[in-house]
Amino acid sequence: MLEFSRVLRDWYSVQKRDLPWRNTDDPYKIWLSEIILQQTRVDQGIAYYFKFIDKYPTVLALANADEMEVLNLWQGLGYYSRARNLHASAKFIASKLNGEFPQNHQEILQLKGVGSYTAAAIASFAYGEKIAVVDGNVYRVLSRIFGIESPIDSTNGKKQFAELAQELISDEQPGIHNQAVMEFGALQCVPQNPDCEQCVFNSKCFAFEKKTIKTLPVKSKKIAVKKRFFHYLIFKWENKIILQKRSSNDIWAHLYEFPLIETSESNKPLIFADYKMKEPRFSSEIVKHILSHQHLFVQFHVFDCKPQKTEQNWLEIELDEFENYPIPRVIDRFLPQLFS
Ligand code: SF4
Q1: If 0-12 CB within 10 Å is exposed, 13-18 middle and 19+ buried, where does residue 18 land?
Q2: Would you state the CATH architecture of domain 226-339?
Q3: 169 CB within 6 A, ligand 1
């Protein structure tokens, strides 16, 4: 067991990527990087990390920021609840913890949007706490090397992996150990076709010996995916446009969007007469936008006129103010067509 950590850390010292958040023990910066990386690739996340550190160098600077400004800076990363949670937690630290970042795994768990994995990463990287991270990379690495076939989405499986991960972690360098196992999953023991011939564990790896790489780790449930059909109505006239703010109990909470008609049954073209509206000047292709539990089919309809009637939550804004409003990525991607 001790050997596992040593081999892993030796591999890491040679193979690790030079990432900006690895050169700091500031828990605020580590927290920020971990939240950015929750659903974002490293190469995309780096630019956002620098943007945030530049604009909000401390947790208090983030706490004092305006929510709309934070969401705007996050634009393009998706899963905006991460940005809202970051902001809410920064305010919590400022107001309830005297501006002091919480100092151990248990306390870090108080922060919104921080689960056991993220808390373990921050506590071990920033404070050297001996607490093992367990995420998708860790499940994959441990299930393959040690031949664990318990489903990673079962209560027993989770417990078994957490206990093994905690048994394996280094006493002297828990932070480096955690970084190493995550990096090993990201670079070497990748989901598809890992290069096992070049792997430092190949002489001891259960999955390599038994040829079960494709079946490990085991998952018992399939995630149910919901299909939704969005029709955005873009009213554009005299340099003006209509936006609305999304509610807090759905995807993209608090972001802005064009007036929306959502249908749930199919992606058949919308019959505008049913809504007492004229035909649009232009309707875009249907764009498929994939979120973790939802597949959205999005179509934009452009009207060169003011709407006949307006809804209470509609906001009439000048086109040049548009960039101040945080919007979902699927809308952002459509804008070149709208403004061309
Ligand atoms: S030998 Fe292959 S499956 Fe086993 S740990 Fe290495 S990369 Fe992963």
Answers
A1: exposed
A2: Alpha-Beta Complex (3.90)
A3: no
Burial class (CB in 10 A: 0-12, 13-18, 19+), 202: middle
> Three-state SS for 205?
coil
Q: Alpha helix locations (H) across 114-210? A: 116-127, 136-146, 155-168, 174-187, 206-210
Q: Which amino acid is at 37?
A: L
Sorted by where each begins, the domain ranges of the chain are 2-215, 226-339
pTM over 0.90: no
Question: Ligand 1 mean position to 184 CA, how many Å?
Answer: 10
Residues 6+ apart with CB under 8 A from 23: none
Mean pLDDT per 10-residue section of the chain, whose length is 340 residues: 88 96 95 93 94 97 96 89 95 97 97 96 97 96 96 94 97 96 97 96 95 93 85 92 90 92 78 79 90 90 87 90 91 82
For the question of residue 172 being annotated catalytic, the response is: no
For 179, list phi and psi in degrees, rounded to 5.
Answer: -60, -40
Asked whether 294 lines ligand 1 (CB < 6 A), one says no
Q: Where are the beta strands (DSSP E) in 168-272?
A: 226-237, 240-245, 256-257, 260-263
3, 34, 238, 311: which one is catalytic?
34
Q: From the CB of 213, is ligand 1 less than 6 Å away?
A: yes
CATH code for 2-215? 1.10.340.30
Residue 16, sorted as left (phi over 0), alpha (psi -120 to 50) or beta, turns out to be beta
Element (H, E) at 295: strand 294-303
2-215 shares its CATH topology with 226-339: no
Residue nearest to atom 2 of ligand 1 (CA): 196
Nearest to 129 by CA among 164, 105, 165: 105
Give yes or no for residue 140 CB within 6 A of ligand 1.
Answer: no
Measured distance CA(135)–CA(139) in Å, rounded = 6
